[in-house]
């Protein structure tokens, strides 16, 4: 199991439930054959794993979303974006499938809209209140008949404990489902926020690297929800890279139904900061889960840069290291090759003096300084091997005395990455 160690934060408690942790949210997931029909040979899969999910809020929600910056965008993104614009940032439900991205198809928009209409009819809501998403094979027509066959069982199966079925349904090459939820207080009201994510390959900044759905019972206006999401995604999902390939269907959406009955957050202030930190905790931990479950990966890599002239500069440097194929390969080989790190730091588009650069490698097995003032140090290869044998590796880089700080997330590059992607479609 590729489980991560959840980071602890004062005032925030981890709870079970994923997207169903917050009051008033139901979810379900079933298998309908989309994954099978997305394969050119049409052979039956070894096991019928959920491939379509539905979510519903008891109340209309404030909603916000961010999308891929790839010029080739999946049809569901176009439709979801239009729906949220029509409603002024309101939504009630989500319909999402895996196995087929519904991208690069002449009838893609029509079928994405059909998914919304079918969902709305089954739930007694308006089509524009539905967020639609898809992930999987690109350029393969979506089997809308399979979707139609799933709508009734999905609607009938909606449950306040259905989060695991939904989280499983959005997986493609993922090996584990990814869910996180936390509880916190706004004034005297107890609030919860939870999320689920999917993604193992085609993950690279910027925005939004994978499909992610987040729900909360905290009352937040659509504008402030969008503000919080845009700010948090910059330091979480946008600092994540598995393979340097940016997907066409990436989306993160947040829905807030207000059922915690706190005073609605409509402006900056203490309540907004408390909520934004809760959102950060959920998104940061899912980001780490996505990195650790990268295609073929054996290690989670976290690179933290401090002392930069700004946070933006720190982000650029940290991303440069995490995205380096040579560094990622060295981590797979458990080789403490500081030259790989310094090389990636050096070509980052940021201002610093290499003579100020210090590098540490650490894990549950200990911590080791491998570079000081831009030069590699003599160190114990035996100790380094022990540190790099762990499955969560931390790279701490200081580049000066500035206030800028950032963390980027990634994974090692293994033989299995090529094997997985060599026959992904077939």
What does this structure look like?
With 426 residues, the chain is an alpha+beta fold. The chain has 2 domains: 13-292, L-amino peptidase D-ALA esterase/amidase (4-Layer Sandwich), CATH 3.60.70.12; 300-422, Ubiquitin-like (UB roll). 32% of the residues lie in helices and 25% in strands. The chain contains 12 helices and 15 strands. Strands 1, 2, 3, 4, 5, 6, 7, 8 and 9 form a 9-stranded mixed beta sheet that branches. The longest helix is centred in the middle third of the chain and has 23 residues, at 270-292. The protein is globular and about 70 Å long. The model has no long low-confidence stretch (mean pLDDT 89).
Strand fraction equals 25-35%
Overall pLDDT: 89
Please report the total strand number as a whole number.
Answer: 15
Quaternary assembly: single chain
Radius of gyration: 22 Å
CATH topology of the largest domain: L-amino peptidase D-ALA esterase/amidase
> Could you say how many structural domains there are in total?
2
CATH class of the largest domain: Alpha Beta
In this structure, how is the largest beta sheet organized?
Answer: 9 strands, mixed
Task: Describe what is shown at a glance.
This protein has twelve helices and 15 strands. The protein has 426 residues and is an alpha+beta fold. The protein has two domains: 13-292, L-amino peptidase D-ALA esterase/amidase (4-Layer Sandwich), CATH 3.60.70.12; 300-422, Ubiquitin-like (UB roll).
């Amino acid at each position: 199991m590729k489980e991560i160690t959840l980071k602890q934060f004062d005032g925030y408690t981890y709870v079970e439930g994923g997207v169903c942790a917050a009051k008033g949210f139901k979810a379900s997931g079933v298998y309908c054959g989309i994954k099978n029909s997305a394969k050119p040979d049409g052979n039956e899969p070894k096991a019928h794993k959920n491939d379509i999910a539905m979510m519903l809020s008891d109340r209309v929600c404030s909603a916000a979303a961010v999308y891929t910056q790839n010029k080739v965008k999946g049809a569901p993104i176009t439709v979801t974006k239009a729906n949220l614009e029509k409603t002024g940032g309101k939504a009630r439900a989500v319909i999402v499938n895996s196995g087929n991205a519904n991208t690069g198809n002449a009838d893609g928009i029509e079928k994405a809209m059909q998914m919304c209409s079918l969902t709305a009819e089954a739930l007694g809501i308006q089509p524009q209140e539905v967020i639609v998403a898809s992930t999987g094979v690109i350029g393969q027509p979506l089997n809308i008949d399979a979707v139609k066959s799933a709508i009734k069982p999905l609607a009938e199966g909606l449950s306040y404990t259905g989060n695991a079925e939904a989280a499983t349904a959005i997986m493609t090459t993922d090996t584990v489902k990814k869910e996180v939820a936390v509880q916190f207080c706004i004034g005297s009201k107890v609030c919860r926020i939870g999320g689920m994510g999917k993604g193992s390959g085609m993950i690279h900044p910027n925005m939004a690297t994978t499909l992610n759905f987040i729900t909360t019972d905290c009352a937040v206006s659509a504008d402030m929800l969008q503000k919080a999401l845009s700010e948090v995604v910059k330091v979480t999902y946008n600092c994540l890279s598995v393979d340097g390939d940016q997907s066409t269907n990436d989306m993160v959406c947040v829905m807030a139904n207000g059922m915690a009955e706190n005073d609605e957050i409509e402006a900056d202030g203490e309540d907004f900061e408390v909520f934004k930190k809760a959102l950060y905790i959920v998104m940061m931990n899912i980001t780490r889960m996505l990195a650790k479950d990268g295609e073929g990966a054996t290690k989670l890599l976290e690179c933290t840069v401090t002392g930069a002239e700004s946070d933006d500069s720190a982000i650029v440097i940290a991303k440069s290291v995490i995205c380096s194929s040579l560094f990622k390969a060295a981590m797979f080989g458990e080789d403490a090759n500081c030259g790989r790190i310094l090389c990636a730091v050096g070509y980052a588009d940021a201002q610093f003096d290499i003579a100020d650069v210090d590098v540490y490698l650490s894990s549950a097995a200990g911590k080791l300084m491998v570079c000081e003032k831009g030069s590699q140090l003599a160190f114990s290869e035996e100790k380094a091997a022990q540190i790099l044998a762990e499955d969560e590796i931390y790279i701490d880089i200081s580049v000066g005395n500035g206030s800028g700080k950032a963390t980027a997330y990634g994974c090692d590059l293994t033989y299995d990455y090529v094997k997985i992607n060599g026959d992904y479609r077939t």
